Amino acid sequence: QQSKLNSFLWTIKRDPPSYFFGTIHVPYTRVWDFIPENSKKAFQQSHIVYFELDLTDPYTISALTSCQLLPQGENLQDVLPRDIYCRLKQHLEYVKLMMPSWMTPDQRGKGLYADYLFNAIAGNWERKRPVWVMLMVNSLTEVDIKSRGVPVLDLYLAQEAERLRKQTGAVERVEEQCHPLNGLNFSQV
User: Fold this and answer.
1) Which neighbouring-strand residues pair with 19?
2) Per the UniProt record, which residue ranges are transmembrane (predicted)?
3) C-beta of residue 126 within 8 angstroms of C-beta of residue 70
């Protein structure tokens, strides 16, 4: 059955070979069992691993956070139509109320609290650009909350690469991802 799975692995035929693997930003536990052995073997045998972004670098995380913010002095209620802003605010209040019931016993056992998790995901939402708020809202579902605390596939592989002392790097800078998203106008968002 493993041989029938699409591996999303491309091989660049050279000596030694290079590989290109397409990942998705979901908790690795949702997809790990479906990643074919040839992809896992290529990762294990590689000495150098490059990722889309270096998610283990504090600068990358800080820059991602900063790029999501509206210009100084602006708030989301200044740029969203009033009815949408009010619906968003009500929805976030609903999510905050529901979040304790969405969390798993395992999350609670690890000391993860609903208020902390809500603030980690939605904190400072009134200062974020609409496109980033949209992405944030899309991740505030029961299924996504239940998988919080599990690294996304990209981060899991980066952590594994570090653990295995592989040389790592990134093919993109934060700005290359951030600026196109921030360039979308309101109707596109």
Assistant:
1) 11
2) none
3) no
